[in-house]
Amino acid sequence: MDDTAGTGSAVRDLLAALAEVEREEAVLLSRKAVLVARIAEEVAQRQIVEEKAVGKGIFSFATREAVLLELGPALGVSSRGAEAMLSFAEDMTTNYPRLGAKLAAGEVTAKTARYVGNTLGLAPTGSREELDAWLAVQAPRWRTHTARKIEHLMEAQYLRLDPE
Questions:
Q1: Is the pLDDT of residue 39 over 90?
Q2: Domain-embedded: residue 89
C-alpha cells in the first residue's frame, strides 16, 4: 500500500492551515492598528477636556506625546516603537484606508503591510488617494516580495506620482 498519497494530503492540509494563520495575522494586525488609532482619538479628546477644565499648564504634553506615553507600556515597546505603531495605525486607518481594508480582509499579509508602512513617510505629498488606490490593487500581489523589492516598487511609484 502506498502511503505517499496520505502524506501529500497531510502536507496540503498543513499548508492550508498555515495560509489561514497568515491571513489571521493580517487581520489581527489590522485590529491592532484600529485599536491604536482609537486610543489616539480618546487621548486627544481627554486632552481637550483636561485643558478646558484646568487650563494648559507648564508641564502639559502635546497630544501625540500623551498617546505615546500610554501606548509604549501597553504594547511593551519603547517610545520609538510606540511612534512606529501609531504612524502605522494612522496610515492603515486614516491615510490609506483602502490598503487598510485589504489588510483587515487578510488580502495583504502583515509582512507586506509592515514593509509598505515603512516607506509611506517618503510618499509625495498630495498623492495619498492615488497611492492608496494603487496600493489596494498592487500590495495583495506582493506576498512573496522582500522588503527591498517592495521598497523599490514603492519608490518607482513615488517617482511616477511626482517626478520631481
A1: yes
A2: no
